[in-house]
Design goal:
PsdUridine_synth_RsuA/RluB_CS, alpha+beta, PsdUridine_synth_RsuA/RluA, four-stranded antiparallel β-sheet, Pseudouridine synthase, isomerase, Structural Genomics Hypothetical 15.5 Kd Protein In mrcA-pckA Intergenic Region, Chain A
Length: 238
């Protein structure tokens, strides 16, 4: 289900704001009934008409993208930097990233035109696991990372409990590889959590999102999710 004005905008009729005007002016019908109220939600099975002409609703599509470092998790960028949608020029549907990865963070990013699923996945109450692997400065030990499993205060708010695993340490380079599993999505969260326990992040990659991983993909590549994967992703958010 998606808001009526969003469905109209996605169909290419007009912008979302102007679609709201069409609705309040009584120019939109859903299943033959005039709709004048904003916020009405419709599904792909509903027949939506603007000025008596049925619109073609986009079918939902779901893509898994291996975001390289140095790419913005956005649709456009006013500084003309490379954005994730630059890699989706061949995709006819208007897709959007689910959440974001920092400019200098690589890894798994989902893109879809399913607004309802996108909002569900991003809400922390659904506790969808996201697994990150970080190269950090310093020799990590369990005692140092243990506070993360209970939650720590960052910018006045306590984080949800996280899980960690120390994958390797390098005494010569004085660095470590740490895996961190969280289900929140605050700005720079993984970097801030590791910095708070004295392990500044030097390099960061998201390897898993719920049941999905990056197997078979290289940076800059994407693939469409199977029906089974979409179902698993939806189930992981329940």
């Amino acid at each position: 289900m998606e808001r009526l004005q969003k469905v109209i905008a996605h169909a290419g009729i007009t912008s979302r704001r102007k679609a709201e005007g069409l609705i309040t002016e009584g120019r939109v019908r859903v299943n033959g009934q005039v709709i004048k109220e904003l916020g009405v939600q419709v599904s792909s099975k509903d027949v939506v008409e603007v000025d008596g002409i049925p619109i073609e609703q986009e079918q939902h599509v779901y893509y898994l993208f291996y975001k390289p470092r140095g790419v913005i998790s956005a649709v456009t960028d006013d500084k003309k930097r490379k954005v994730v949608l630059d890699y989706f020029a061949e995709v006819p549907e208007r897709v959007y990233p689910v959440g974001r990865l920092d400019y200098d963070t690589s890894g798994l990013l989902l893109l879809t035109n399913d607004g309802e699923l996108s909002q569900t996945l991003m809400h922390p109450k659904h506790e969808v696991d996201k697994v990150y692997v970080a190269k950090v400065k310093g020799i990590a030990d369990k005692k140092q990372l243990l506070p993360l499993t209970k939650g720590i205060r960052i910018e006045g708010r306590k984080t949800a409990p996280a899980r960690f695993e120390i994958l390797s340490t390098d005494q010569t380079a004085q660095s470590s590889i740490v895996q961190l599993t969280i289900h929140e999505g605050r700005n720079h969260q993984v970097k801030n959590m590791l910095k708070a326990v004295g392990l500044p992040v030097q390099k960061l990659k998201r390897e898993n999102y719920g049941p999905l991983d990056l197997k078979g993909l290289r940076p800059g590549e994407y693939r469409e999710l199977s029906k089974k994967e979409v179902s698993q992703l939806k189930n992981s958010a329940k």
